[in-house]
Specification:
By secondary structure, the chain is α+β, with helices and mostly antiparallel strands. It has helices at about 5-10, 25-35, 55-60, 95-110, 125-130, 165; strands at about 45-50, 70-75, 115, 135-145. The structure holds flavin mononucleotide (FMN).
């Protein structure tokens, strides 16, 4: 799909059909995720793939926002691998994971699938349910599936601040 059409059409899909997501589609999304830029190319992201009913049931104990999707990707980062800005010690792991997440959302839409970035989850429950090592931090959950025939964007999707409110030139 042409890029401008892709970013215009993508929206947070919160209602999925019963159709499964093919392994090949998951693989295509993971390959798109892999191409994401990361600071100093450290690639500190780790992606936990949930692709069966048992795992998706466990995920429901960690977030209200699974939308009964058949598949979910949990994008995480290893802060101990990520680049750290020497001036102020800022760790880029979460930023890197966010870029990976953006690739995931756009790749899903390109494949005719839908997803939503889910940040509203219980990290402690997630860690416990899926045996997270201490050095892996969950950043975002992406439930993925084929949009239901009546899926539609939420009103928020259509609300974007005017550029004048979010962009300044030359100096704040
Ligand atoms: C960091 C972040 C966290 C989010 N967390 C959630 C969430 O927990 N549940 C949810 O339904 N949507 C969540 N969203 C989706 C936003 O609500 C959505 O992207 C926004 O309202 C714009 O709508 P659109 O994606 O359809 O354009 C999150 C998005 C971002 C970027």
């Amino acid at each position: 799909m042409e890029y401008r059409q892709l970013i215009r059409e993508r929206y947070s899909v919160r209602k999925f059909s019963d159709q499964p997501v093919e392994d090949s589609q998951v693989a295509a999304i993971l390959h798109a995720a892999r191409t994401a830029p990361t600071a100093v190319n450290k690639q500190p992201q780790r992606i936990l793939v949930l692709r069966n009913a048992e795992s998706m049931a466990k995920l429901k104990d960690c977030t209200l926002y699974t939308f009964n999707a058949p598949v979910a990707l949990i994008v995480c980062c290893r802060k101990d691998e990520a680049w750290v800005r020497p001036y102020d010690g800022d760790n880029s792991g979460v930023i890197d994971a966010a870029i990976v997440g953006t690739h995931i959302m756009l790749a899903a839409h390109d494949l005719g699938l839908g997803s939503t970035w889910v940040g509203h989850f219980d990290p402690t429950a997630l860690r416990r349910s899926f045996n997270f090592p201490d050095n892996i931090e969950p950043v975002a959950i992406f439930p993925i599936g084929r949009p239901a025939p009546d899926a539609k964007p939420s009103p928020r999707h259509h609300s974007r601040r005017p550029l004048e409110e979010t962009v300044v030139y030359d100096s704040f």
